[in-house]
Please model this.
Amino acid sequence: MATTLSQSELRTSAAEGGTAEQWRERDRRSVASVWSRYTDLVVSSAEGSYLIDVEGRRYLDFACGIAVTSLGHRHPDVTAAVHRQLDRYWHTSIVTQSVVMTEAAERVAAICPEPLDVVFFANSGAEVVDGSLKLARRSTGRQGIICFRGGFHGRTFGAMSVTTSKALYRSQYGPLVPGVYVTPYPYCYRVCEHAPGEPCPIAAGVELERLFHQVVPADEVAAILVEPIQGEGGYVVPPTGFLSTLRRICDEHGILLICDEIQTGVARTGRWLAVDHEQVVPDIVTLAKALGSGLPVGAIVSSHRLMDRWESGSHGSTFGGNPVVGAAVIATLEVIERDQLIDRAAALGEAIRARITAWQTAGHGPSDLRGRGALIGMEFLDDQDRPDTHRVTQIKHRALEAGLVVLSCGIDDNVIRLLPPLTVSDSELAEGLDILEAAVVETGRAR
Ligand SMILES: Cc1ncc(COP(=O)(O)O)c(C=O)c1O
Model:
């Protein structure tokens, strides 16, 4: 047996304290180092909009565990629903039908546009991305999968094979899943070559038509997989019309449109789904993250037309649709509806944008401000228009020192992403934005 801890150390549970540094040292010894962290916070509790570390310090959480705790931490209604479920049953898997899973499926279908009314549950985002690719191949009898450069879809072999936001995520894991074709995403602010304000050829589908002409015939393509707004890739909002163009191209060629709404879905952008902003109806939607308020869940949502072609038993999961998680899903969707958090997401977005626009006007940056609803990206470039990763790192550090957790993203990690809880109060929002403003102004001056 590998003994890394003394008996007295083992007896020190989180409830009994210990300094942050002691816990970091224990973590270094026992947790795989591949598990990277955005901050060195050592958290032992959380409530509402705050994380609380082992030494009792409170941090405003505008990261939401990467777009997960949209109702804040331990929302009372979700907590109560989970407690009630713990007293009924925890697990049956595919041994029985489960009333909670059936109800959760009905609720999830209800937030998706028609005809998407059938749900498959799994435990994470990557799992449902994998499952959606399997569904696409099985139901079309075709193999090709088209995905977009800069996209992030997860870490399993299938999801990693369609992930191109950073080479690190793929490096030395090959060979990856074959039949994947990567095409450019309309990242007009920095990557596209057209002049600012000019129509974007990529958003108009020019590159896809080239791909069909030169690389893979359209009738060999099962699905186009897309994030309606790229998440890890930099909160990149494509030009309006891009998703409708994808829909048209898919319809022309009998290709399925899979929209990965794992980061954008469940009210975050001021609609249930980000595709609702363009009224585009995908063939398959993947959801996860905020759907369970922090309990692990993923969902593939599609139509009977497709799902009925997925032969019973040809995909599955031991834990998917777990009743305790299902209770959290049902409660989460109820709270969003009852407390009108979709409207709140839109209002938060407007308030945040107004504040940041004033920083821009005063010359502090960011160079670009984008997003939808309460999913907001601030991209920083330096004086020579190069990605300013260093400044973004400094902003995160200063904010953290002052008690605010914010994350970065982007292919060059030069984008601050803001994901406040949709339940954040106006005063908490102001407190967080004051801290962020100070960090932006100070780091701007230091340049
Ligand atoms: C758009 C998108 N898809 C898929 C995933 C993978 O989800 P998970 O980490 O739950 O596997 C993520 C995670 O960040 C994501 O943002």
Q: What stands out?
A: Residues 77-338 form a domain with the Aspartate Aminotransferase; domain 2 fold (CATH 3.40.640.10). The longest helix spans residues 341-361. The pocket of pyridoxal-5'-phosphate is lined by residues 66, 124-126, 129, 152-154, 227, 231-232, 260, 262-263, 288 (CB under 6 Å). The chain is about 35% helix and 15% strand.
